[in-house]
Design a protein that fits this description.
8 strands, 2,3-Dihydroxybiphenyl 1,2-Dioxygenase, domain 1, alpha+beta, globular, 3 helices, 136 residues
């Protein structure tokens, strides 16, 4: 319990366990698998006043609102559980760091509207993504 308090205090003070060899990163995106992205987008807009951009018939997401939310209704692409996205400055360095730390790459680097990303599983089995923002 004391460890959690110390970790939370350190995070608030910006004293996390990042080392100089670790890419600067922050949790910036959570993607939810949904059955109908339009219905879910309307729900979040109505319930919370969020603006969601439609990226096609099966994907919508917030942009630039802190930690953003994505809604994925593409059954072939959606993950089984919520997918956290970690924003980094150097995607290739982050890929190397994830692999060196024992992460298993579940989707190699690919482009998406607004950037590039890859997915990985950490040793506990959770799938996460790491991405960079790129303006065309």
């Amino acid at each position: 319990m004391a460890y959690r308090r110390i970790a939370l205090r350190n995070m608030k003070e910006g004293l996390g366990s990042m080392t100089s060899s670790t890419p600067t990163a922050r949790l910036a995106y959570v993607e939810l698998p949904v059955t109908d992205s339009e219905a879910s987008a309307v729900f979040f807009e109505t319930a919370f006043g969020w603006n969601l951009t439609r990226f096609g018939p099966s994907y919508a997401g917030t942009m630039g609102q802190g930690t953003d939310l994505g809604l994925d209704a593409d059954k072939a692409e959606a993950t089984a559980a919520p997918l956290a996205g970690i924003l980094v400055e150097d995607l290739e360095a982050a890929l190397a760091a994830v692999q060196a730390a024992g992460g298993e790459i579940s989707k190699p680097i690919f482009a998406f509207p607004g950037g590039r990303r890859f997915h990985f599983r950490e040793p506990g089995g959770n799938e996460l993504s790491v991405f960079v923002e790129e303006n065309d």
